[in-house]
Amino acid sequence: MIRGSCLCGGIKYQIHHQLGPIIYCHCQRCRKSSGSAFVTSTEISRADFEVIEGQDLIKRYPNPGAVDRFFCSHCGSQLYSQRETTPLIMRVRLGTLDDRISEKVGAHIFVGSKAEWHEILDDAIQHQERP
């Protein structure tokens, strides 16, 4: 089990299974939503994610036909995203994990549209778009 929470601590969650591959997404939407060069997330089964506290604080930013983003309405922390086309899968933002993990980045996606001011320095696989 892996625990996580938002910045203010109002939302606490648990992941009841191993994490999927760690992905750095460099697309413009992820940069805009995070205010950073990329978003770090892992894909897990929706059934493996449990909100322990603060369910009422979770708000959804809907983006029809794309990715819906879920965040804390109090502190603004992005928690996860989900696509309408894959409702049983979610992508958890690793920056919200409270427990340490040993896994490392598996791939970079959308490097064809990455921020020009960011340089990728690791040896992880790079995909120009979504593989």
How would you summarize this macromolecular structure in one to three sentences?
The protein is mainly beta and 131 residues long.
Task: Give your account of this protein's structure.
The two termini are 28 Å apart. By secondary structure, the protein is mostly beta strands. The model has no long low-confidence stretch (mean pLDDT 94). It is globular, with a radius of gyration of 14 Å. It has one helix spanning 28-34, and strands spanning 2-5, 12-15, 22-25, 39-45, 49-53, 58-61, 67-72, 78-83, 89-93, 105-109, 125-126. The chain contains one helix and eleven strands; from the N terminus they run E-E-E-H-E-E-E-E-E-E-E-E. Helices cover 5% and strands 40% of the residues. The longest helix is centred in the N-terminal third of the chain and has 7 residues, at 28-34. The strands form two sheets. It has an eight-stranded mixed sheet with strand order 6-7-8-9-4-3-10-11. A three-stranded antiparallel sheet has the order 1-2-5, with no helix packed on it. It has one domain (2-124): Metal Binding Protein, Guanine Nucleotide Exchange Factor, Chain A, CATH 2.170.150. A hairpin with a 5-residue loop joins strand 8 (78-83) and strand 9.
Give me some keywords for this one.
mainly beta; Metal Binding Protein, Guanine Nucleotide Exchange Factor, Chain A; eight-stranded mixed β-sheet; 1 helix; 5% helix; 40% strand; globular
